[in-house]
Design a protein that fits this description.
Length: 310
């Protein structure tokens, strides 16, 4: 196992209300869980309501052997919930409840100190929809002095606007997004139409980002960095069950490899493997059996290369 790093994952912890029943989720929580299973001190910083959902969420976090000391309690707002529906292909659609506890995360002194000492700080855009949590995020990023500030964009309906996206990108070293989200970012920045790699390279030239990572669904993933140029890795074949948490698993694998000082291509490969494994099972926090990641990396069937990367 590589050296353990301290990773702070800031944002929403919520209940995904699936047709089969509630499952604890939220991209920051899913990411922190997967990073924890990779051997890191991955701390989720969020806020729960003092209600039955909040108490159940807190118990689930503890059950997964994750740190709970930076999960705040809110006496006035409910724990977040997200009704989820699926289409015939297993793709999901969210309806995100507004004005819930994670919209009011406070910049407690211990949390600011944790951010200052962390090796990696990860955040998204959902938590930026409210003024309170957005101000806390700004303070934490101001205190942060670690290796990678990672923005996992996660554009969700009614949770962002162009100005918020641009402000979030300004705080990041690494931007991770999918190819559909790249279309939105390209529009915001006025990028001419091109391949994902071409658009990512232009975005890199216009910002202070050090790396842009684009996931391409079954096409795999590509990354453009100031140090390594453009790299691409095809995806792994699995029988899909649902895609909840697959992108968060990709992010955990990717940043694990980078923090361990592995090449960018290995970071993409590990991210693809983890994302595929999670796609092949129900829910974002189902454990992966011993050796499954290594087996996927060594023996997993690769999907065809994306035609934009001959």
């Amino acid at each position: 196992m590589s050296h353990s790093f301290t990773i702070v994952s800031f944002g929403e912890v919520l209940w995904d209300l699936l047709p089969t029943g509630p499952v604890l989720g939220g991209a920051p929580f899913n990411f922190a869980y997967r990073a924890t299973t990779l051997g890191h001190r991955a701390v989720v910083a969020s806020r729960l309501g003092k209600d039955d959902n909040g108490r159940a969420a807190f118990a689930r976090i503890a059950e997964l052997r994750m740190e709970t000391g930076f999960v705040q309690w809110d006496p006035a707002h409910a724990t977040g919930t997200v009704p989820v529906s699926f289409d015939s292909a297993g793709h999901h659609d969210f309806t995100i409840t507004p004005d819930v506890a994670y919209d009011f995360i406070e910049p407690e002194e211990a949390l600011v100190q944790l951010a200052a000492e962390a090796d990696c700080f990860c955040y998204g855009t959902v938590v930026g929809r409210s003024a309170v949590s957005r101000a806390t995020l700004k303070k934490l990023l101001g205190a942060y002095a670690g290796t990678y500030a990672l923005l996992d964009l996660n554009l969700r309906k009614d949770c962002w606007n162009d100005a918020l996206v641009a402000a979030a990108i300004e705080g990041a070293d690494i931007l991770k997004l999918n190819d559909q989200e790249l279309l939105t970012v390209a529009r915001i920045y006025g990028l001419p139409a091109g391949t994902p790699a071409e658009e990512a390279a232009l975005l890199l030239s216009m910002t202070d980002l050090r790396c842009v990572v684009v996931t391409l669904g079954e096409g795999g993933a590509c990354a453009v960095s100031r140090d390594a140029g453009t790299v691409y890795e095809p995806g792994f074949a699995v029988t899909p069950v649902d895609t909840i948490g697959s992108g968060d698993a990709f992010t955990a694998g990717f940043i694990h490899a980078l923090l361990s000082q592995r090449p960018l291509t290995e970071a993409l490969r590990l991210g693809n493997a983890l994302g595929a494994l999670v796609t092949g099972q129900r829910g974002a926090t189902e454990p992966l059996g011993p050796g499954r990641i290594d087996s996927m990396l060594a023996e997993g069937k690769r999907l065809p290369r994306d035609p934009r990367f001959p």
